[in-house]
Amino acid sequence: MRRGFKALAERNSAAARRDLHLIATAPLDPWAFAAHLKVVILDFASLALNEDAVTQLTVTDGESWSAMTLRDHDQYAIVLNPAHALTRRRSDLMHELAHVQLGHTPSRVEVSKTGFMLLGDFSDEQEQEADWHGAALLVPREASCRCARSKPPLEKSRIFMA
Ligand SMILES: [Zn+2]
User: Fold this and answer.
1) Among candidates 2, 5, 1, 12, which has minimal Cα distance to 140?
2) pLDDT digits (tens, 9 = 90+) for 142-153
3) pTM for the full model?
4) What percent of the chain lies above the pLDDT cut of 90?
5) Among positive and negative, which fits the CA dihedral 77, 2, 142, 66?
6) Ligand 1: distance of its center to the CA of 118 in Å?
7) 78 closest CA partner among 124, 38, 129, 106
């Protein structure tokens, strides 16, 4: 990971909480953060896919994808896999928002018939950054340190699940 990146992630995490009028250790709702970044979350059902495609994406191949990020000029939209548990969708959404906030450019872009770009194939380094940044957004370092010291450890799981 590039030098200074972890500190940048913590600064962005703190700034997101300030922008959303949250205290430094409060959980950050990925949907609220998406709205703050003006990223649209598209409901999977709104894609109006045919039944075969829905079965393929949610049952047959339901584990093969977590989220899709689409871009139309400066507008980003994210579709989450509805077959996954809410806890996973939360972290997947924050991961995708990290790619957006960090301005990551994928090595492969597919363009749909309607002109949307489907972003895919980020580099390994970009994936590591999005993982780290997404986790820092969900749980700032200050909150995780506080939890690690607190007893019982229930406190920590509450923050991750919130
Ligand atoms: Zn990614």
Assistant:
1) 12
2) 777 766 666 554
3) 0.82
4) 49
5) positive
6) 13
7) 38
Cα 47 to ligand 1 centre (Å) = 21
Instruction: Give the distance (Å) from ligand 1 centre to CA of residue 150.
Output: 32
Query: To which residue do tokens 């495609």 refer?
Result: 53
What is the distance in A from the centroid of ligand 1 to the CA of 48?
A: 25
- CA 51 → CA 10, 47, 55, 59, distances in Å? 42, 11, 6, 11
Q: Are 74 and 116 in contact (CB under 8 A)?
A: no
Consecutive H or E run containing 90: helix 86-101
Helix axes 154-161, 141-149, angle to 10 degrees: 150
> What is d(CA 78, CA 57) in angstroms, rounded to the nearest whole number?
15
